[in-house]
Amino acid sequence: MKKADKNRVIVFDTTLRDGEQSPGASLTHREKLEIARHLALLNVDVIEAGFPVSSQGDFQAVYDIAQSVKGPVIAGLARCVKADIDRCAEAVAPATKPRIHLFLATSAIHRQYKLKKARNEIRKLAVEFIQYATKLCPDIEFSPEDASRTEPDFLAEIVEAAIDAGARTINIPDTVGYSVPDEFGAVIARLYESVPNIDQATISVHCHNDLGLAVANSLAAVRNGARAVECTINGLGERAGNAALEEIVMILRTRPDQYGGLTTGIKTERLYRTSHLVSRLTGMGVQRNKAIVGANAFAHESGVHQDGILKQRETYEIMTPQDIGADGTELVLGKHSGRHAFANHLSKMGIRLKPEELDNAYKRFIELADKKKFIYDDDLLMLAQEQMIETAPVYTLEYFHVSTGSKTVPTATVRIRKGEAIMQDAACGDGPVDAVLKTIERIVGTEGRLIDYSLQAVTVGKDAMGEVSMRVAFGNNTISSKAASTDIVSASAKAYISCVNRHLRETAQNKLSRRPKKTT
Ligand code: KIV
Ligand code: ZN
């Protein structure tokens, strides 16, 4: 196996595995493939594409990504269980560079309550299944789950045994996001001091953000010798999420003085659009003031700052929007642009649509160009991504009408299509959006509780499209989605229908296969 370059930090993206475990962030097959393709364009080193044994859908996604996405290593997750490893090996097999990522909890609390096993049994299991996995795949990663809360002597013992058994990446997770930077850095430093065969493996880290320290902890580990970081786009992931890829990458790039000139292979100019893609397809919005990719990340409001920037950019700007590809506000196409120019521009942006999706997106572009004078890259991205959101929507919005005003009861009429059937109803609400959502519920017969609703302009100007993001709870199932339109009631109706469709699809999938209980 090729020796790791000591000056290079390997970027292991787990958006499609840990990220997809974010409550409400489930993705369709098509959406997973699209994200994987964009991760490859971003030039990540490893894509963890899923947990193949957990469902037929996860298996198929890992398999198809392994088959079609070339460049990065394609990894699948597996417990130290024969069936998991067999399934994972089968799923990653088509990849040019396949990897099996095995994990087993090692901390006292997990050993005692979750696994009910003693240290020596854990060690034995890890060794046995790493050895088994090496027979099926040349590249094995091992994670001692909850490593940061594992007794240091036992952690060193298991890491040494895992390397002896054939693991070539040892990933140290802060599974519950409990660690703080000095402490986590010391965990890595101690491993380098106490594990005799450590130079035969790459040390990786996987930090959760429960205390808001995932990025800081990951970088403390890098300072102490870790040369791979597991992270996700927009910091998606279990609970408070994982370390945000874009933050780690831009910190290393902006502060080489602090990190000994370590680099990554990431094409940073693709960060912004990858973040947008993931946000749109998962339905998980990015907070405006989020570092690097938030809408305000490069917005200077104060007059003093604006004045400083005009005189010398570096007075208040440590990175440029161009560095992350957030300068796409140029006017790109207009009402008279043909289908060919439209397709060409999308392809330059790295977006690939099937012919019928391209037709639909172009139709929407012409409609939009009729309503809106300037069409920007972000508008196009939104139109294209609309086509990827659902492969086979159950319900689609055909028509709506609302009547509202300061002295009238807001009332909506909605027409929805399901296959060949057209259904129509009307209802009132305490505002036009409420009236439309209530009418949709009457038609589809599924009631949801709106937990979050936010509206954001996609680009600039009064005629900008409004993007509605919402989270809806259908019983215990929480779903997120987004939709955009120049009409905010229409965007709200589409986002709600998208949530209903996602909910119905997930319910149908869960009936077919039950995912194993949460693993991380
Ligand atoms: O958080 C965790 O410990 C994990 C492991 C599977 C790496 O996700
Ligand atoms: Zn995790």
Which helices and strands occur, and which strands form pairs?
Layout (H helix, E strand, L loop, with lengths): L9 E4 L15 H14 L3 E5 L5 H13 L4 E7 L2 H11 L5 E8 L2 H8 L3 H18 L3 E6 L6 H14 L3 E6 L6 H14 L7 E6 L6 H10 L4 E4 L13 H10 L16 H12 L20 H9 L19 E3 L5 H10 L6 H17 L3 E2 H13 L6 E8 L7 E8 L2 E8 L3 H13 L4 E9 L8 E9 L2 E9 L2 H25 L8
Parallel strand pairs: 1-2, 1-8, 2-3, 3-4, 4-5, 5-6, 6-7, 7-8
Antiparallel strand pairs: 9-10, 11-12, 12-13, 14-15, 15-16
Outline the structure in words.
The chain has 520 residues and is an alpha/beta fold. The chain folds into 3 domains: 8-282, TIM Barrel, CATH 3.20.20; 331-386; 396-511, 2-Layer Sandwich (Double Stranded RNA Binding Domain), CATH 3.30.160. 41% of the residues lie in helices and 20% in strands. It has 16 helices and 16 strands. The chain has helices at residues 29-42, 56-68, 82-92, 108-115, 119-136, 152-165, 181-194, 214-223, 245-254, 271-282, 303-311, 339-348, 355-371, 377-389, 432-444, 488-512, and strands spanning 10-13, 46-50, 73-79, 98-105, 140-145, 169-174, 202-207, 228-231, 331-333, 375-376, 396-403, 411-418, 421-428, 449-457, 466-474, 477-485. Strands 1-2-3-4-5-6-7-8 form an 8-stranded parallel barrel, surrounded by 8 helices. β14 and β15 (466-474) form a beta hairpin. α2 packs parallel to α3 (82-92) and α7 (181-194) runs parallel beside α8. The radius of gyration is 24 Å and the shape is globular. The model is unreliable at 514-520 (pLDDT under 50). The structure holds 3-methyl-2-oxobutanoic acid (KIV) and zinc ion (ZN). The site of 3-methyl-2-oxobutanoic acid has 11 residues, from β5 and β6.
